[in-house]
Amino acid sequence: EVHLVESGGRLVQPGGSLRLSCAASGFTFSSYWMTWVRQAPGKGLEWVANIKQDGSEIHYVDSVKGRFTISRDNAKNALYLQMNSLRAEDTAVYYCARHPRYGSGTYYNFDYWGQGTLVTVSS
Amino acid sequence: DIQMTQSPSTLSASVGDRVTITCRASQSVNNWLAWYQQKPGKAPKLLIYKASSLEFGVPSSFSGSGSGTEFTLTISSLQPDDFATYYCQQYYTYPLTFGGGTKVEIK
Predict the structure, then answer these.
(1) What whole-number distance in Å separates Cα of residue A20 and Cα of residue A9?
(2) What is d(CA A27, CA B65) in angstroms, rounded to the nearest whole number?
(3) Which of A106, A77, A53 is nearest to A2 (CA)?
(4) Contact by Cβ (8 Å): A110, A39
(5) Please, where are the H alpha helices in B1-107?
(6) Beta-carbon count within 10 A of A23 CB
(7) Quick check: helix, strand or coil at residue A20?
(8) Quick check: B27 and B68 in contact, CB under 8 A?
(9) What's the CA gap between A121 and A94, in Å, rounded?
(10) B87 in reach of chain A (CB within 8 A)
(11) Can you say whether the dihedral through the CA atoms of B77, B23, A70, A119 is positive or negative?
(12) Is the minimum CB–CB distance between B103 and chain A shorter than 8 Å?
């Protein structure tokens, strides 16, 4: 069974940094694109970043470019999100999710999600 | 960026009702569209991918249709477990974007 478990969320001051982790199990992690999606309190979903199986291709939403870095460690079955220069508007539940594979390709919807970790940016 | 607009934002319905939610894209996304269900405090759950393909394990009461810029999610007979918020998402191009959500409430 696929499991994704996020950790690392906490209260942080504006301008601060935080590293989120996502532990994956139940599937061959190195075979899948992975992604981070966030949801501000009471708001909708926002895709943040994703990363190819070998880390050779990465995409970000404009609002986090230059501040957030997505990475992965396939040996540890782990996905990370390094968040720097945090702002109040980054306050959200951050979900780790998997992009599914259909046939030999990847679809960029999300088939499995973690339970989320809450990041609160406030002084 | 492709803007995804859902309507209505809130929908009141009764058990057994047929429910339709619309999602419009600001430009064509072909059929690269997914639908998710989210309940309070929980992660979203994939229902439909590629506009009309039912994800494994999702009840057949859910169906999706459309292509290009206009899409619909239909629940043929609303069940108590279906009261939730529904989101569409395009994956035709980056940034991947979601609609604002449609909350299905008990009438």
Answers:
(1) 6
(2) 30
(3) A77
(4) no
(5) none
(6) 16
(7) strand
(8) no
(9) 13
(10) yes
(11) negative
(12) no
Condensed to tens digits (0 to 9), the pLDDT of residues A53-64 reads 999 999 999 999
Is A88 exposed, middle or buried, given 0-12, 13-18 or 19+ CB atoms closer than 10 A? Answer: exposed
Q: Kindly report, residue by residue over B37-90, the tens digit of the pLDDT.
A: 999 999 999 999 999 999 999 999 999 999 999 999 999 999 999 999 999 999
B55 touches chain A (CB under 8 A): yes
Contact B78, B14 (CB under 8 A): yes
Compare CB distances from B87 to A45, A95, A115 and report the shortest one's residue: A45
Flag whether pLDDT at A74 surpasses 90.
yes
| Residue count (chain B) | 107
Q: Determine, for residues A59 and B99 on separate chains, whether the beta-carbon distance falls below 8 Å.
A: no
Taking the CA of residue B90 and the nearest CA in chain A, the distance in Å comes to 8
Q: Which two tokens stand for residue B77?
A: 């007979």
DSSP assigned state of B99: -
> DSSP letters along A36-101, please?
EEEE-TTS-EEEEEEE-TTSS-EEE-GGGTTTEEEEEETTTTEEEEEE-S--GGG-EEEEEEE--E
Which two structure tokens, joined as six digits, stand for B22?
Answer: 């619309």
